Amino acid sequence: MEAASFRMDAFRDAILQRAPIESFALKTVQEFIQPQKQTKLAQDENQMLENMLRTLLQELVASAAQSGEQIMQYGQLIDDDDAENIHGQIPHLLDVVLYLCEKEHVEGGMIFQLLEDLTEMSTMKNCKDVFGYIESKQDILGKQELFARGKLVMLRTCNQLLRRLSKANDVVFCGRILMFLAHFFPLSERSAVNIKGVFNTSNETKYEKDPPKGISVDFNFYKTFWSLQESFCNPASLTSASTKWQKFSSSLAVVLNTFDAQPLSEEEGEANSLEEEAATFNIKYLTSSKLMGLELKDSSFRRHILLQCLILFDYLRAPGKNDKDLPSETMKEELKSSEDRVKKLLEITPPKGKEFLRAVEHILEREKNWVWWKRDGCPPFEKQQIEKKSPTAGQKKRRQRWRLGNKELSQLWRWADQNPNALTDSQRVRTPDIADYWKPLAEDMDPSAGIEDEYHHKNNRVYCWKGLRFAARQDLEGFSRFTDLGIEGVVPVELLPPEVQSKYQAKPNEKAKRAKKEETKGGPQEGEPNQIGVSNSEPEAEGGRGEAEAMESDAIADPDHRPMSVS
């Protein structure tokens, strides 16, 4: 026994020493466990180390309890370099174990087992500090190599904490645990989903059955009001029997009529609202008949009841149910009228009734996505990354096939399917001016701009294709330069920088040769549209031919001259 005690004391001193964790953690394990492999423990060696750590943790908690200190501050260690960096012995021990688990020197679930033991040995006050440590290490604990080993232990630990906490007095702590579980587990984790849709019927709202003596209270309204909670607790019961729905509908009408008859002013809403007083806010309201008058003047109380009504209506209309669970046509009409009344009351309930109603409607609309997800069997949201297989040597890479020849046309067709007016809208067809369209390419051609080829507009095939279409319609002279000078030659010369204009500006003699060549090819058929219309008399016809020939000779001399028809 003395040897075992001495060995435990030596292990305690070694594992809690004040030094960087990476400098002593693995050496300490190798010294006291003596594993077969130097960097990774076997199964029996992991069990031996876990027993030693659990024993040490129990001793530290017992020592902290005897000293009256909080367990996470017991035996604080102050770093020499940073006096403000203070650590208790238990957080330091957990950091060492977490380091060993993260580096895969020991089994990954060991840290989760120690955290479960620590919460079981701690009071609820100390559990808040322990859980604060868990929240601070959430990113490391959530790594795949650790999460796979300890997710069930962590889920059991959090559920045990929730059972120990009071749902009325420890609302904030319960919320912290639920938020941690929501972030720690994947979005599609089925363990947190109520697959069967079972309601918590044990959450019973108790209220007075007999009228009190000596107090003037509308006891019939009191009983009618709190009887609604029975239906809110188990909404499925309303569709099983028509009598229950009729009773609920009549009771709800009485409550809504009372809210209508006693509207709240802005001053009353701001004065009586408890939403800003988080410290005095409870998860359940008191049901004493003496408080009925005061609660009706509380805007947050009214919102609580009206919001319950909207949630109930949303459930009854939820898709994906069996035929027997769906509401009847009469019931649907009553649901619609009741919902409209509830929304109107929420809108006029101060403060900020309209904003509150919009937020509630947005939340309920998003809730439909979760309903469908549950009805479809909770398929996982996470998708495995598809590995791109490189083509083997000698195998041609298969080109992607598009429905209509290329990506742009296929995308246009898909837009037309989704929006039939996409191609017929008069505002869609806007042909830009040729000068405005070529301006980006002209700016790229400026040497001082220093545009790289990768970002140059001349390498954008879609841009060039559209530009050629515009040039063919609006600028035939520029379009003709494409054959000799490429896409940059189509750009109007006046848009180009001075040092670039000379390169793409055609010489006059070249234009004359081109015009003469076109005249030779066209023959008399091309000349007819350019002739001046004359009368049928012979002298005038000869004169007309002479004028036409003169105009053609002028066109050769002046390349910018364009013949005109005179009617």
Automatic annotation (TrEMBL):
Residues 508-521, 558-567 have a biased composition (Basic and acidic residues). InterPro entries: THO_THOC1 (IPR021861). Pfam families: efThoc1. Residues 501-567 are annotated as: Disordered. This is THO complex subunit 1. It comes from Cardamine amara subsp. amara.
